[in-house]
Design a protein that fits this description.
Jelly Rolls; alpha+beta; 13 strands; 5 helices; 6-stranded antiparallel sheet
Length: 308
């Protein structure tokens, strides 16, 4: 109502007093929006275990990033970032370096020599004088056998040896686990009689401190020919040795007297031989050991000859 609608001044004053009292009563009550917000339930705080898990995850992540970003030291598993200290490589490149280094560290060492440059990297030593020569004057007319040892292989222990050789007269000879002319295992392929009938034998023995021990000669159901090329493969693993000739197992035996040494060949002028090439793969690395297990596994069709 407006002032002109009141009948008298007394009624007008009374209406004003009632409006002021009503406004005061409204001020004492909370507005609906504020009251509604007070009625909301408080949010549930995160549990202690969840907080600890998040904190541990962030800590591990921070440590991993810090390890990758830190400069590589001499003994660190992560390789150096760059030859130029001002050049920084990314995390992906550094991670690739780590993986590549791990693969290279487990790969077997492989050596190959094809004799195109002669006997470089091979040491030569004369073997002991035959005990049958009692007359010193006869030594001048005797050609002593010589042993050639592959120097790059002398530090190895377990490996696979493979080579291709030619029998010029009657034998093809090689050595393994050889450290010098005084210590090695010797193996010979022999033509025992002329003709096309089985005429082959395998001889093996140990030389320790210049003395020969335990010579064994076993007949083979094979025919060897003069001038023939033959591919020989040997698996040398701990105290077990397996010999293959043209893919066929011809011998398997064990001995633990010599634990380390490389590859060698020996011959003399009376019984020359030719070796076309030789390869060697070590078997002490992780990957090499896996390959060795396959090499030691003999298929049923490759039965080892009895008595070997």
């Amino acid at each position: 109502m407006v002032d002109q609608q009141y009948c008298c001044s007394a009624h007008r004053q009374e209406a004003r007093s009632a409006s002021a009292a009503l406004a005061r009563d409204e001020d004492d009550q909370e507005p609906w929006s504020v009251s509604k917000s007070h009625n909301k339930k408080p949010s549930k705080p995160a549990s202690a275990s969840q907080t600890a898990s998040i904190f541990a995850f962030l800590t591990v992540g921070a440590l991993l990033v810090a390890a990758l970003l830190m400069p590589s030291g001499g003994g660190s598993a992560i390789p150096a970032v760059s030859l130029d200290p001002t050049v920084k490589r990314g995390l992906i490149e550094r991670f690739g370096d780590v993986i590549g280094g791990a693969v290279r560290s487990t790969a077997p060492v492989t050596l190959h020599h094809d004799f195109s440059t002669g006997w470089s990297d091979w040491s030569v030593a004369n073997l002991h004088v035959p005990t049958s020569l009692d007359d010193p004057h006869r030594l001048a007319s005797v050609s002593l056998p010589s042993l050639r040892i592959w120097e790059r292989s002398t530090a190895l222990q377990n490996y696979q040896l493979e080579f291709s050789g030619e029998i010029e007269k009657k034998s093809l000879s090689w050595a393994f686990r050889a450290t010098d002319a005084q210590n090695y295992y010797a193996t010979k392929l022999l033509i025992t009689r002329p003709g096309s009938i089985p005429n082959a034998a395998l001889a093996r023995y140990v030389v320790m401190n210049g003395r020969e021990w335990d010579r064994v000669q076993l007949p083979l159901p094979l025919t060897l020919e003069k001038g023939g090329n033959y591919r020989v493969r040997m698996t040398i693993q701990d105290d077990h040795f397996i010999t293959f000739l043209n893919g066929q197992v011809i011998s398997s035996w064990s001995d633990n007297r010599l634990r380390r040494g490389g590859v060698g060949f020996f011959a003399d002028d009376q019984d020359p031989q030719q070796v076309a090439w030789v390869s060697l793969s070590e078997r002490d690395s992780l990957l090499g050991k896996v390959l060795t297990y396959f090499s030691l596994f003999v298929m049923p069709g490759q039965s080892i000859l009895p008595g070997n």
